[in-house]
């Protein structure tokens, strides 16, 4: 039995002046949330805001190819936030202006965990100093552009140093349009569970800006509990979207009607896979598209339920022609079994404490 959707899900959401069509966001996943993937997911419906992989501000200003690829977007890729990071305020401001000049409606600053552990001796003042520096940087970026600026960060250094509520309040005071909180500490990396009470403390600390809760949302029940337990304005979904790119459509239907609707059909699942592959190949070249797809093929095999021999045929994918031919056979043969239930994708994550995200 599904929980009923909280009433907030039927209220309109804005980031600054930018209307956001749903309260279900795609979290940045470096190496995965490419323009091709974002467009493929948008085609499934229900997505609120998407964010690019993090882009280094200086590399962007220097026009480095990799940074420009990460920041690549188009008119259909809206609403979008480009995520930038860097420690030099002037570079961050210029990078934010670059984002604005591209017509992208929002800038997200990746802060990871902006202040170090609070230690008993002298730590307090060092912390104040770092917190001040962080909000000066954020304030400078806010002042440099007209588009809304958000900050994505963790709860703090470790369980004894949960600095996010205080920081979120000071970021609100310098004008950010929202904060996105991954409910883990830096020390935790990707281990353990998300601390929803920690996210709630951030919601309680700010006056009016939306707080977006992030971490471990894989099912509609997870999303419902996150809204109820944290009081957040929206949720952001990373790995859960890789396992099920239709998750946003299901969440949005549930939000509107209490029912997630039908599971995507076999053809819809193959269509998604096709959009994703051809999006990569047409933008980044056939070779890149093939290599990238080999990395994620197993998920698509689980997700589409295409016959196993066809999956094996794609394991060494080397051309768009082979992809198209195989998908045509997959369509003709039909699925190997019923649509998958929930499954986890195994995305390699750093094993220890995390620096940026
Ligand atoms: C492979 C990978 C890459 C990530 N890249 C970024 C990134 O570029 N910027 C960022 O802010 N967070 C990044 N994150 C963190 C996610 O946005 C998110 O905070 C985290 O995965 C928890 O959410 P989830 O459980 O829904 O995946 C990354 C996470 C993973 C697993």
Description of the structure:
This protein has 357 residues and is of the alpha/beta class. It folds into two domains: 7-257, Aldolase class I (TIM Barrel), CATH 3.20.20; 266-333, Non-ribosomal Peptide Synthetase Peptidyl Carrier Protein, Chain A. The chain has helices spanning 35-42, 57-61, 65-70, 89-101, 123-144, 164-173, 196-205, 220-230, 239-243, 247-257, 266-284, 286-304, 308-314, 320-333, and strands spanning 13-15, 18-20, 24-26, 50-51, 55-56, 80-85, 106-112, 149-154, 178-182, 211-214, 234-237. Strands 3, 4, 5, 6, 7, 8, 9, 10 and 11 form a nine-stranded parallel beta sheet that branches. Strands 1-2 form a two-stranded antiparallel ribbon. The longest helix is centred in the middle third of the chain and has 22 residues, at 123-144. The two termini are 34 Å apart. The model has no long low-confidence stretch (mean pLDDT 94). Residues 27-31, 53-54, 83, 110, 152, 182, 214-217, 237-240, 347, 349, 357 line the site of flavin mononucleotide.
